[in-house]
């Protein structure tokens, strides 16, 4: 067992090409209801990325050598799966019909416009840190808009590579107006949060 662990650590002890595994990691967005007149009719949402792909280069001894890229198919986004709502700390469940309505609106041309912008992507520009702490910087693209982001993350190298973190973003920074209905009586906040746990394996 010790020999196996040492071999696993050695696999990440020099620059390695890695693949991030969507079936092992998790990536989701929290969308918050706004404090509107009829806020009791609104819901917080947890939107999970499914079928995403990622790749990169990783050196456990030199984080500055990292290169990470991720691609998320917009049409594969899943709305309010019970296990993701629980993971996000959101109480209660959403009916299947409501989940479908939320997804239909989310993918429409007044929100993410999935037909025109089918992918959400991230490309790192730098990694700084050591041990369990790292700052991951890069370009995040959604709805055809790209912004630079800087995310503090937790790194685990003990038994393969895991990178965990979260960062806030605003829909309007990506040309998206937050959902609003009933003349503004219900709607979502501009602010959202993306949470991720990326698990990698050598390619």
Structure description:
Strand 9 and strand 10 (161-170) form a beta hairpin. Mean pLDDT is 88; it is low at 1-7 and 37-41. This protein has one domain: Lipocalin (Beta Barrel), CATH 2.40.128. With 203 residues, the protein is mostly beta strands. The chain is built from three helices and twelve strands, in the order H-E-E-E-E-E-E-H-H-E-E-E-E-E-E.
Q: How would you sum up this structure in a few lines?
A:
With 203 residues, this protein is mainly beta. It is built from three helices and twelve strands, in the order αββββββααββββββ.
List low-pLDDT spans.
Answer: 1-7, 37-41
Question: What integer is the average pLDDT?
Answer: 88
For the record, the count of structural domains works out to 1
Task: Please give the number of β-strands.
Answer: 12
State the helicity in percent bands. Answer: 10-25%
What is the terminal separation in angstroms? 23 Å
Share of residues in strands? over 45%
SSE-based structural type:
mainly beta
Q: Which fold name is given in CATH as the topology? A: Lipocalin
Biggest sheet descriptor: 8 strands, antiparallel, barrel
Q: What order do the SSEs take from the amino end to the carboxyl end, as H and E?
A: HEEEEEEHHEEEEEE
Morphology call: globular
CATH class: Mainly Beta
Q: Which CATH architecture?
A: Beta Barrel
């Amino acid at each position: 067992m010790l020999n196996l662990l040492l071999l696993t650590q050695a696999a990440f002890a020099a620059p390695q090409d890695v693949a991030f595994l969507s079936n092992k990691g998790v990536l989701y967005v929290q969308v918050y209801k706004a404090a509107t007149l009829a806020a009791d009719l609104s819901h917080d949402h947890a939107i999970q990325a499914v079928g995403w792909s990622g790749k990169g280069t990783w050196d456990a001894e030199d984080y500055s050598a990292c290169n990470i890229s991720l691609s998320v198919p917009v049409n594969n986004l899943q709305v309010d799966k019970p296990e993701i709502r629980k993971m996000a700390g959101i109480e209660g469940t959403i009916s299947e019909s409501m989940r479908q309505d939320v997804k239909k609106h989310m993918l429409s041309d007044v929100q993410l416009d999935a037909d025109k912008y089918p992918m959400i992507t991230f490309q790192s520009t730098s990694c700084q840190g050591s041990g369990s702490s790292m700052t991951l910087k890069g370009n995040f693209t959604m709805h055809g808009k790209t912004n630079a982001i800087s995310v503090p993350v937790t790194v685990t190298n003990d038994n393969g590579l895991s990178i965990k973190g979260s960062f806030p973003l605003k829909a309007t920074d990506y040309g998206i107006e937050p959902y609003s209905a009933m003349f503004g009586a219900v709607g979502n906040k501009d602010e959202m949060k993306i949470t991720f746990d990326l698990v990698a394996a050598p390619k």
